[in-house]
Amino acid sequence: MSFTAIAWTPLCVGITVVGLVLSYLAFRRRGLAAGLRATAWSLLPLAALLTGILETLWNVVSALVSFVTRLVLSPMVWTGIVLAGLSVLLFVVSGALRGRAVTRDRKGSAAADASTAAPTGAPAAAPAGKAKPVERSAQPAAADDFSDIEDLLRKRGID
Predict the structure, then answer these.
(1) Does the pLDDT at position 148 exceed 90?
(2) At 25, phi and psi to the nearest 5?
(3) I want to staple 23 with a disulfide (CB 3.0 to 4.6 A). Which of 39, 49, 75, 131 is the partner?
(4) How far apart are CA 156 and CA 159, in angstroms?
(5) Per-residue DSSP letters for 121-157?
(6) Exposed, middle or buried: residue 157 (CB in 10 Å: 0-12, 13-18, 19+)?
(7) Nearest to 38 by CA among 52, 27, 46
(8) How wide is the angle at C-alpha 16 spanned by C-alphas 10 and 18, nearest 5°?
(9) pLDDT at residue 1 above 80?
């Protein structure tokens, strides 16, 4: 059914008139605010017809309905949706496999560098670009740690 096949003018005018009558009743029973709000809603159908928005809305809804009916009833469309889903799945799997391969290559090259650079019995050299960690004594001097604290306590008068 096309937009021009329906008598829109009498329909919109009728809806607006019924809405205005109900707006008057709302004004009498609920007050000015409710009556004005109902009047505003009542004028919208006629305004939509006169501005052309009603025809645009009709075309949008008609296009959506035809798209959905073609989508649900067409095996070709469903085949396209399945192929699009398969494509997305293949992209995700290939990305995951590629990430694993890059990680494996990095780990393998680091292990190969460490095994060839360090002779047996010698400590392994740090990989290029990384700083060698600073070695610290196994047991820190306990007196050095607490001497600063003791000095601060004595200055404050706490023994």
Answers:
(1) no
(2) -65, -40
(3) 39
(4) 9
(5) TSPPPPPTTSPPPPP--SS--HHHHHHHHHHHHHHHT
(6) exposed
(7) 27
(8) 100
(9) no
* Residues 12, 150: Cα–Cα separation, whole Å: 92
For tokens 């706490």, name the residue.
Answer: 158
Q: Output the six-digit token pair for 96.
A: 């995951």
- Tokens at 56, concatenated: 């645009």
Amino acid identity of 89?
Answer: L
Span 47-51, average pLDDT: 94
Tokens of 108: 């393998």
Query: How many alpha carbons lie under 13 Å from residue 126 in its C-beta half-sphere?
Result: 7
- Which helix (H) or strand (E) segment is 6 a member of? none
| Tokens 């709000």, located at residue | 37
The H or E element containing residue 1 is none
Residue 32 tokens read as: 């000015």
What pTM did the predictor assign?
0.45
Rounded CA-CA distance 29/40 in Å is: 17
Please give the Cα distance from 25 to 35 (Å, whole number).
8
Rounded distance, CA 93 to CA 86, Å? Answer: 11
